[in-house]
């Protein structure tokens, strides 16, 4: 890959980001999903969130362009916990770490934080605060919505701003310890990243056949009796690898998004998915 | 009714943004109930219908990127209908659900159609044009506002029941098909990551991650930790091989 051989034109570490700058970035992280789409998901919003940080770190225009280009790659995580990743990544950018190490850490952290955030906020915080607010509201109590909003957002904004600082400090400290061998760090980061991507495909791509073959008395469910017997998550893996192969052949992601919509519509029309 | 419909449309636009941007969760029905109640001049009924919708729709959250029925439009139309028609909250839910489902289908479509804009963003990134990246994100917000405001305005102005009948003429298979496609869509993002990161020497780690999730059904955090364990092992193996052997190791080797 070309990125393998990228050398910063300006290799000196940038000065530390100030608390005020970090706060500004945490505010910008509210727009993480402003440009959400199925090709890159939160990528452009992610770049928007860290952009002033990147700008003050990379004074060299070519370095800035390379960094911005890298951060336009696919990105998706939990929108509250994203500031933790922002902190770590900005610390790495600041120390002019290897571009592949930066990518590896980004990919390795986004998946687990996504799962943790869902469990913490959507399955715990929201049900608790919303049910308190709603139980007041159904009795006609006007404070119900306010109780909900205040409780929810104290924790929401506390986590968002707290993790920004914590992530950044952790990043700076960890990098100071890992001075040796940046290519080893890149390799380690890529290993975690690819292990996580393997898991993400099986967990988050939802592709199932819903068709039962009936012949006389016997019934054969294509998904549970055939496909799952061969291998669980066979279709998500097969489809991802097909898309991977088509991408390598030079097909544009847009064509593949169109293809996916067509697959969904056909599957639904014939009632097999 | 025009004034009320416009005010409700503005609220729907604002919370349509909040569903993705900001996430203060003022888009939840419990808050919408109060606001729509205020606009329509019956706060108590608004609160009751909003609170009831909230309790029924507690589970409608975007888990793992899956899109549940749209709680913004569902909440706005449900409470407005509940207050205007003086209906039972359960009936309001019944009216609101077709809208909530249909709107989420449209949002799937929007997320698909917004993908080409990313190529413009790539160009901005290449030119180190930070203003361009800002503008793309503001454009997304503007579209979310207009889309939600319009969708909320029409049924409230023309009557939710007629609109619900219209929504139900959209064949179910199209709405289902879009939601199936939405479930498969993450495959594209993962394939793009693979294209950037994959090297032959890393295939084994990819396989391990897949097996841990597919066969052992481990959560992603567990898989990341196993990946981390492998990576640490690999890291220290490589370091020991390269660096000059430290003295303590020679001693332990001797034993």
UniProtKB/TrEMBL annotation, chain A:
Keywords: Cell membrane, Membrane, Phosphotransferase system, Sugar transport, Transmembrane, Transmembrane helix, Transport. The keyword Cell membrane applies. Pfam families: EIID-AGA. The chain crosses the membrane at residues 74-92, 113-136, 142-163, 184-206, 226-247, 254-272. GO terms for biological process: phosphoenolpyruvate-dependent sugar phosphotransferase system. This is PTS system, N-acetylgalactosamine-specific IID component. It is found in: Cell membrane.
Automatic annotation (TrEMBL), chain B:
Pfam families: EII-Sor. It is a multi-pass membrane protein. It is found in: Cell membrane. GO terms for biological process: phosphoenolpyruvate-dependent sugar phosphotransferase system. GO terms for cellular component: plasma membrane. Keywords: Cell membrane, Membrane, Phosphotransferase system, Sugar transport, Transmembrane, Transmembrane helix, Transport. It comes from the Bacteria. The chain crosses the membrane at residues 6-23, 30-53, 91-115, 136-158, 170-193, 205-233. PROSITE patterns: PTS_EIIC_TYPE_4. This is PTS N-acetylgalactosamine transporter subunit IIC. It comes from Virgibacillus dokdonensis.
């Amino acid at each position: 890959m070309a990125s393998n051989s990228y050398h910063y034109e300006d290799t000196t570490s940038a000065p530390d980001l100030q608390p005020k700058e970090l706060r500004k970035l945490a505010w910008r992280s509210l727009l993480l999903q402003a440009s959400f789409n199925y090709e890159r998901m939160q990528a452009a919003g992610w770049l928007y969130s860290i952009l002033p940080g990147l700008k003050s770190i990379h004074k060299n225009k070519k370095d800035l362009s390379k960094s911005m280009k890298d951060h336009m790659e696919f990105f998706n995580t939990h929108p509250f916990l994203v500031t933790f990743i922002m902190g770590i990544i900005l610390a790495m950018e600041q120390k002019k770490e290897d571009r592949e190490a930066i990518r590896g850490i980004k990919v390795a952290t986004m998946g687990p934080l996504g799962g943790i955030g869902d469990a913490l906020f959507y399955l715990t915080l929201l049900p608790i605060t919303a049910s308190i607010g709603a139980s007041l509201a159904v009795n006609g109590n006007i404070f119900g919505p306010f109780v909900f909003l205040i409780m929810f957002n104290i924790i929401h904004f506390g986590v968002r701003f707290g993790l920004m600082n914590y992530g950044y400090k952790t990043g700076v400290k960890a990098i100071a310890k890992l001075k040796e061998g940046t290519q080893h760090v890149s390799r380690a980061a890529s290993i975690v990243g690819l292990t996580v991507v393997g898991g993400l495909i099986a967990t988050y791509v939802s592709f199932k056949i819903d068709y039962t073959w009936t012949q006389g008395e016997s019934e054969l469910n294509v998904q549970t009796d055939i496909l799952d017997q061969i291998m669980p998550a066979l279709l998500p893996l097969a489809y991802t690898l097909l898309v991977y192969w088509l991408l390598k052949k030079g097909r544009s992601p847009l064509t593949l998004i169109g293809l996916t919509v067509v697959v969904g519509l056909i599957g639904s029309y014939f009632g097999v998915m | 009714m025009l004034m009320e419909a416009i005010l409700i449309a503005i609220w729907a636009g604002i919370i349509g943004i909040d569903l993705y941007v900001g996430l203060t969760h003022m888009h939840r029905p419990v808050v919408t109930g109060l606001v729509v109640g205020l606009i329509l001049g019956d706060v108590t009924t608004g609160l009751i219908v909003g609170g009831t919708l909230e309790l029924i729709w507690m589970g409608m959250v975007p888990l793992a990127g899956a899109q549940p029925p749209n709680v913004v439009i569902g909440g706005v139309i449900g409470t407005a209908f509940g207050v205007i028609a003086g209906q039972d909250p359960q009936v309001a839910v019944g009216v609101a659900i077709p809208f909530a489902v249909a709107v989420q289908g449209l949002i799937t479509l929007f997320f698909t159609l917004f993908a080409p804009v990313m190529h413009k963003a790539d160009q901005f990134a290449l030119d180190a044009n930070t203003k361009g990246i800002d503008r793309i994100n503001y454009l997304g917000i503007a579209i979310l506002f207009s889309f939600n405001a319009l969708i909320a305005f029409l049924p409230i102005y023309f009557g939710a029941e007629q609109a619900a009948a219209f929504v139900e003429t959209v064949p179910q298979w199209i709405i289902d098909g879009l939601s199936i496609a939405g479930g498969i869509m993450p495959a594209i993002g993962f394939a793009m990551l693979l294209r950037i990161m994959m090297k032959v020497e890393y295939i084994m780690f990819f396989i391990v991650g897949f097996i841990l999730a597919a066969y052992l059904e481990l959560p992603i955090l567990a898989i990341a930790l196993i990946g981390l364990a492998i990576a640490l092992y690999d890291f220290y193996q490589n370091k020991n091989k390269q660096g000059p052997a430290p003295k303590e190791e020679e001693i332990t080797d001797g034993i």
